[in-house]
Each structure stands twice: as structure tokens, then as C-alpha cells.
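Hi R.,

Here's the chain you asked about this morning:
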Amino acid sequence: MTAYSIRKTLAPLSRKIILALTREKVLDAKKLQIIRNRMTKEAKETLPKNIELIEAYLKLAEEGKIKPNPNLIQLIQKRKVRTLSGIANITVLTKDWGCPGECIFCPTEKGMPKSYLSSEPAMMRAVMNQFDAYKQVKARLNGLTAQGHDVSKIDIRIAGGTWSSIPHRYQTDFIAGIYRALNEGPGKLRGKKDATLDKLIKKNETAKCRCVGLWVETRPDWVTPEDIKRWREFGITGVELGVQTTDDKVNAYCKRGHGLKESIAATKLCRDAGLKICHHLMPNLPKANIKSDLKSGRELFGNEGLRPDYLKIYPCVVTPISKLGKMVAENPKAHKPYSDKQLIKLIADIKKTVPEYCRIIRIVRDIPADSIMMGCKKSNLRQEIQKLGVACRCIRCREIQDNPIKTTRLVIREYKANGGTEYFISVEEPNLDKIIGLCRLRLHKNGAIVRELHVYGRTESLSKKTSVRSKSQHLGFGKQLMTVAEKTAKKGGYKNLMIIAAIGTREYYKKLGYRLEGTYMVKSL
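And the predicted structure, written out as C-alpha cells:
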């Protein structure tokens, strides 16, 4: 029996089970299992998987035969963690346009953007969809919906190396594909390309799937004011900068093409424009050692010219299709990787120094073990570090997720960065030591700007037919944080407050009295 015929046979049973479950006044995981097992046995069918039940639920809700049941969809939802940070993440990959860099550690696979492998899980979807942004986003939207996740708030990350070096025409078409897919939402490919980018962006302000964050990645030596102006016209709100190390001797040996000076200059340009900043840190590069890597980790936050909002830690690994791989093949002593134990301790020590205003997104690349010649092959470094009992204070380790909120407190942390003052304003649950929401306010000579507003916890849908209820979103925390930001800016002598709003968040800020000026939302104080 084919997969299609199995699905077709199970559809009526899945619908019957969902109808039965919606009639239950009190429903929990145990009761769901009992009802599903009993009805499957009576029908003499194969037990439906959660994804089958989710599809039946969505169809019945669409047909109006059942009312939205937040408790039920939450019970059958797969990979709940995907939307526990308040949004759904989607990564899309550009096609190979070459790279201006000559880094010896970067994998160079034919047909893939430099540093990416076709065997990496997140990249496989891009390859399957011929690197088409529209198709990649549609595929991910369909996958998330099939798992029972809300897709009304989407954070997009564009991977593919040095975005700034990609032809501008391709950039425009790629961004247009993203917005076209979001505006259409989940479902079949339509492929209509009659709308201009400006019209697609305008439509996304009120679309069912709104872009609430848009990131690009690039090299620090490839950031200019002209680039940032173009990014803002695309609706880009965040940038990932490949800093890698603060040790210029290591950068020079690895032929990185830039040093600490360029990393600081790029960070300042992006921060002054209001962009969220993510730095990439790469321990265990050739010529680095434990001491120099620990210094780099500490200098990221000790140096006022850096201090990123987000951090990705990608330990260097040697692949056969890199210059370093060829060097090692000719001379095994060309590079000596740390032992797993050394690397785990090093990253744990770096995590201890990460301040509460930063979120560590990742600490390992998804490079398959069989593609690694030298270096750590563990994919669970985060879990290994947790075993050491490291008390990390980063945002990710303290997110509220789906925990109940009993009491709250407002915390304002102030620090200097790139010639301005940063205010990290947060609402926290003191009993659980968890962060509920945050606001990043920057005050500098050119004005006052909110660089980020985010409320964590399970995603609350923008749709009236919401499927899963959040214990933290849409409860006024965002408005509370913005009120504090406005008062702080006004007290600092600023007459206006700007917000680097993502396209899909403009409607929210309009309700708070902001208006669109250029590519920013602005309000008179």
C-alpha cells in the first residue's frame, strides 16, 4: 500500500477521532490516547499519527464543523519548542554567488554558497527547492502548519554567506519571493509574480503570515551605509556578522580578510541604524588556543565596540572541501583540534561571561559527522555543557516558554555600546527567574531608537481563529515595555522615538500612536 493510499484510508478515521475529542469537556494526553486507541481498534485500522490528526483538525475547523480548540491542538502539536519563543523561525538559503573571502576554514562545495554543505539538514530543503526563496518559505510554512504550529508571526533568516556581495537584482527578487510566499500563506504553490516588491511589502503589513523579523548574514568588511539603506527598504531588521575571533593574528593566518577594527565599524553602522546584531564566534581556528579563544569570548562583551544582542558559537571543524582540509591532508600538524572535553569546557567558560541582554542562538553547526575530518563531531554540545551545571544568564536559557506567570517585575539594564547608551528593558518572572519580554532602546547623538521589542512564550496567533493560547503574548507586556522606552527617551531629552519595525509589526505600532516615516515607525514624545 502506498503512502498516499494509507493517508486516504486514515483520513475518515482521523476526522472521527477529532470530532470525538472535541466533544470531551475535560481533555488531557491520557484521555486522548485512550480515545484514539479505542476508535482505531473498533475501526480495525492503523493508528493515526499526530500529523494525521492535525490535518483532520485543520480541515474540520476550516469547514466550520468544529470550533477552534486550543487545548486539543496543543496536545497533538509536534515539536512544541518550535514556537515557544513567540515566533516561528524559517531559514532560507541563497544560491551560490561565490564569496569575496578566502578563508582557509570555509567548506567550498560546488553548487552551494560558501561555508554551507548540501548534507546539512536546514540546507537540504533549499537544495530540494532549487534555492528558490518562494518555494523554500512555502515548504516550511506547510511543514509547520502540518505539525500544528501557528504561522502568523514569522522570523526569516537568509543564509548564504556574504549577502552584501550578491547582485542587487537577485537580492530584490529573493526578498520578493519571501514576501510573496508569506502573503499567500500555507498551501499549494501559485507562483504569480505580477506584484512589485513595494506592493508585496505593503500587503504583508496585514497578511495572515506576517514577517516580524528579517535577517541577513555578511562579512564585517562588507557593510556600508548604502547597504544598510537597501536592507531597510527590504524590511531587514537584523544582521549576522562573521566576527569569528577578536585575535587579528588568527584572522590574518586564516586569511579572513578583516580584523577587529572592521568588526567594530560594521557593528556601529548596524547598531546606529537600529538593527539587531548577531555575532558569529569560531573557537579552535588555526593558530588560536584555549587562552586566546577565551579572551575573544570575553572581549565580545568587554569591548564597547562589540557587545552583540545575539551570539552563534560555531567551533571550527576541518572538512575535506576546504583549504584547511587540503593543508591538513598534506601535513597533519597544520592544525590541532581541541579535544571534546577541552572544547566543552571552553564554551562553558564563555557562556558564563555572556550578559543577560544577549541570546545565544546556537553553539554548533549541523555539519554531519561523516563530513568532518578533524574537530568536534558532537551535535549535542549544548546538552553536554548543561551537564557541567553552568549557570548561563543568556536570554535563551531564561525564556518564559509555556510556564505560568504568577508575578512580574520590570528591570532596566544600562550599558555603553558604539558611542551610545543601550537600555535593555525587560519584564521578568522573579519566582522562576525567567524573562517574559524585552525592549532594546538605543540613545545616541543621532536620536532615540527601539531596536527590538519581543515578548516570549508560546505564540499567540494574529488570527481570530487562534489555535493555541499563550500565557504571555497579547497580554499588554509589549505595550508596557514601550511605555518605559518612551519615558526613558523623553527623560533623555529626545523629542521623537523611532522603531526599526519589521513589515509585519507596523500595524501593532500604529495602534500605539506611531506613523511610518521612510522605513521606520516614528512617534513624537
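The chain has four domains: 3-76, 80-218, 234-396, 409-524.

Let me know if you need anything else.
M.
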